[in-house]
Amino acid sequence: MKNLAVIFDLDGLILETESLARKAWVLAGQDLGVSVPEQVVQAMVGRTIHSIRSLLEEMLDADVSYDALLARSDHHYHRLIEIEAPVIKPGFFELLDFLDDQGFSLALATSSRRHQLEPKTRGTGIQGRFRQIICGDQVEQGKPAPDIFLAAAHLLEMPPARCFVLEDSGPGIEAAHRAGMRPLLVPDHVRPAEELVALAEAEFQTLHEVIPFLESLA
Q1: Domain check: are 67 and 95 in the same one?
Q2: How many CA atoms lie within 13 A of 87 on its CB side?
């Protein structure tokens, strides 16, 4: 399998962080007297900070600085991570062990900014398991643009068509599809819209289920 790669998302796929992000947005809104509806929070899942700013401007009709709202959310998010360390999703390390044994090239491609990565993954051993890591602030456009996955494939020196992408979000699945890769969906709390689910090559309920699928390629 040395001619294949698997690129992992982080939040919602490897780490149970989406619930923390939801809390952070609600608290940020309370701080600034702004209501941040659940549909707005859901729409932000999987996106970079730049696309989130655009989304807020489009979906929120509020007399508030969007940069201030983003800053307050960031503050609460990091505070919550310190209080409640993110849980690693079941099957993650078993899947990594299988991929290592089979010789897959591995990369982590996360919409999180680089300075957010260490606090989230501290003490987990996650970062040490990936050959390449690329963050949302290292590419021009965030998901659903394909930039982050194309950058990961470039670092791995792997053609996009030889790359599987494991994602939990609709924007991530769309980004992988647009990159010419093979999207694999493992939904988190909210299953993406059907038109985005249809872009995935396969859908799984847990990371454990990915192992027999990739094993069948041998």
Answers
A1: no
A2: 7
Total domains, the chain: 2
What's the chain look like in SS3?
A: CCCCEEEECCECCCEECHHHHHHHHHHHHHHHCCCCCHHHHHHHCCCCHHHHHHHHHHHCCCCCCHHHHHHHHHHHHHHHHHHCCCEECCCHHHHHHHHHHHCCEEEEEECCCHHHHHHHHCCCCCHHHCCEEEEHHHCCCCCCCCHHHHHHHHHHCCCHHHEEEEECCHHHHHHHHHCCCEEEECCCCCCCCHHHHCCCCEECCCHHHHHHHHHCCC
Write the pLDDT tens digit of every residue in 9-67: 999 999 988 788 888 888 988 898 888 777 777 777 666 667 777 777 777 766 777 78
Tokens at 212, concatenated? 């027999």
- Angstrom distance (rounded) from CA 128 to CA 160: 23
Q: How far is CA 2 from CA 5, 51, 127, 133, 174, in A?
A: 8, 34, 21, 19, 26
Pair 145, 187 in one domain: yes
Residues 180 and 77 in one domain: no
Do 75 and 121 lie in one domain? The reply is no
> What is the residue range of 96's domain?
5-16+87-215
Report d(CA 104, CA 94) in Å as an integer. Answer: 14
